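Researcher: Next sequence.
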Amino acid sequence: MKENNSRFLEIGRRLRAYRLGRGITAEQVADRLEMSRAAIYRLEKGEVVKIETIQRIADLLNVSVASLLGVSVEYYDNAVAYFERMRQLEEEAEQILAHFAPFSYLLSSDEYAHAVELAIRETVIGDVEEGDVAPEVEALVRILRERRDHASRRRPGIVSIVGLQDIERLLRSGVVGRFDLPEEEVAERRAIARREILRLADLLEEEPIGIQIGIVEETLPQQTFQIFRQKERTFVAMSPYRFADHPNVRNGVAMVTETPDAVQLFDNLIASLWRRAAKGREGAERLRHAVARVGSGLRDA
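Model: Next structure:
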């Protein structure tokens, strides 16, 4: 019975993620399916769902029944739905193992997170009137804030695999969303990136309880991935979306799965990267050398 309740709860969570991704309110779902708004909220909270209802909801949200049920792989074709699903998985996670470029967003400072929000808005500004905010950006920013707030309160264990090449690219570009920003603004965004990487170096040296960071010099996969270890289940999430320097929050398909073979393969990959990564003081020094090297190059340019 407990397992069945958990399954229906996951269906409800996926329903919410897909609904937010389509920019549809619970009221709109209720109206189109001729159901009560309360019924939709109950479904999102894990109430037992009839297969006929699942089919109707899947058709409305333009997803497969298999994805809504979480059979094999869940697919997400926009960042809002995907990061809402991540937020849900993080709520139950006891440990998060992440390769998210340039580093786990849950470890970011307030200053860096604010700059990321600006960069995300800059990527879609051409699609809205001056001064307005694209609806999906507003939803995405809200979800990102909720993720950081929850992580700071709950403090799950975090293992972050950081690619040195990603760090150097961030230092050169700064936390920007467009190429045509004023030079003084670009300089400030580069300064924010430098301060954040130096803060990350301090974290490496301090080695706070529950946070492990490894610096890898070789090229890492372009698609980022994260493993969410919950008390009784483990999920893997893979994503083409990225923040920081020239974010991509619109194009690509992300996937979430708990199939044992996928979990094991990504477990093995994380373990292999972790063995080769520089940690502690050694990792901190590599980050500081990167800051000095990139800064020198920019001054000479």
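Model: The longest helix spans residues 183-206. Residues 241 and 248 are 5 Å apart (CA to CA).
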